[in-house]
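During the reporting period the student researcher (J.K.) took over the structure-prediction task from the postdoctoral fellow and processed the backlog of single-chain submissions. One of the processed entries is reproduced below for the supervisory committee.
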Amino acid sequence: MPAFLARLDKPVLAAFGCIILLLLVGSLYSSSFLSPEYLLQQLQVASFLGLIATGMMLVVLLGQIDLSVPWVVTVGGMMSTAAAGWGPLGETLAIPFGITCGMIMGLISGFGVAYLRVPSMIFTLGMNAVAQGLMVLRTGGFAPQDHSTETMHFLATGRSILNIPNALFVWIAVGAATIFLLGRTTFGRTVYAIGNKERAAYLSGLPTQRVIMLAFMASGGLSAFAGVLLAGYSTKAYQSMGDPYLLPAVAAVVLGGTNILGGRGSYIGTIAGVILITLLQSILSVMQIDEAGRQLIYGAVIIGMLLVYGRQKKAN
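J.K. obtained the following structure tokens:
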């Protein structure tokens, strides 16, 4: 086996193997399944999920989970389009404003988990409800009439270089920053240490509480960024626009080999998981399986992977 393949975890290799299998199966239903245009389109769609899964991976590596994703995505989309309606200054600040709103919500979640010691499953679920309430309060429960800016639309749908989607470049930039963060910084090493044994990391003098809070803040910001791009993709934000992304984000991280108990995982695995989930969605659509069937399959996949990875020992 080549050296670079030997360094990859078995789950990551399995995920890439499943991607190849899905492409071959898909090509049986449609001859265009392996065309460059179709693959680029799938990578463009995968970019939105990739941003959310990046934040989710940081949290899962800590041994936590972020269930506030659905409405933090919506907050990012709605607040950025709202800012776009404030005139030229609002159009300039629309993207950072939407991301900042998500970061604030993530920061609150991180504070609750790190300092108040509330289980992340409970606190982030509560934050999801709070975000939903705030957005319903703002819109009155109706679809907002604000539109995305040209910059948001350009980032989400444009193809500036070699016909490659701009959204894919955004995901690549975020992914490169994440790989550097996890592999080359104290923050990254602390994330893995907390996931393996938080108490040991704390006794070693690592700033565990601050790192946990920052990881949740990053997750909120990336979810909101995905919401910004989704609003740019459809030119408008809408209620519950983030609902379809929670389960796929968790599934992508777990399928990529990140231990659901924290402490182990690589970003290359998350990339594989995101592409795998996106292709799975595409094939299920081609096979005309309804939404309920897709959710059943996602749930079955996650449970199956949890049975495999949830029983593994954490890395030393």
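The committee noted the following: The chain is about 75% helix and 0% strand.
J.K. will present the remaining backlog at the next meeting.
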